[in-house]
Amino acid sequence: MRPRDRQSFGTLRPHAPSQSRAPVRSCSQRALKGSRLGEAVSYLNNQWDGLLVFLDYPRVPLSNNAAERCVRGPVVGRKNFGGCKSVRGTEVAAILYTLLERAKLAGVEPRAHLRAASEAALTGGPTILPHVYREQVRAERAATRSASASPPAPLS
Questions:
Q1: Hey, what's the torsion of the CAs at 100, 103, 108, 110, to 10 degrees?
Q2: Residue 129: which residues within 8 A CB-CB, separation 6 or more?
Q3: Is-above-0.90 flag for pTM?
Q4: Distance CA 18, CA 10 (A)
């Protein structure tokens, strides 16, 4: 969940009576405290308020799949870097992987950004960061749209 989303939720309001802990309490009274069921019911009771947040705030996702996908990339990269045979190879792989992931986070095509960044580095131009490249692409698209949308100039 993004910080700005967390701020917009504000304080939690009390839950409706239909969302009470009565079912959890009845299970906890029947389950032995040391048993696995007792531990599970105790965990559910401790996490109850957090479990009901999505009922009060529809923008809260029911799953954390988006966060898991964000974390997956670096974990796979870390696993792959273990196969590098030299320190320099590991550094190059880490740099390349970082460039690709930063491009994804900026919302640009990683291959296109890598091509532009490589061309800039080979020609001695300034480093093109993903967010700068994104703005350049947007400006080029806007210029293309405005050029094609404008009526042709009258012949004189």
A1: -10
A2: 102
A3: no
A4: 22
3-state secondary structure of 139: helix
Alpha carbon distance 138, 106 (integer Å): 13
In the chain, the amino acid numbered 96 is: L
Six token digits for residue 65: 């799949």
**Tokens linked to 47:** 């996490």
Residues 6+ apart with CB under 8 A from 135: none
**C-alpha distances in Å from residue 51, one per residue of 21, 60, 122:** 11, 11, 53
For 83-110, the DSSP string reads T-SSHHHHHHHHHHHHHHHHHHHHTS-H
Counting residues of the chain whose pLDDT is more than 90, the rounded percentage is 12
Q: Which tens digit of pLDDT belongs to each residue from 140-153?
A: 988 888 877 666 65
What is the secondary structure of 26-66 as a DSSP string?
HHHHHS-TTSHHHHHHHHHHHTHHHHTHHHH-TTS-SS-HH
Among 7-11, 31-35, 104-108, whose mean pLDDT is lowest? 7-11
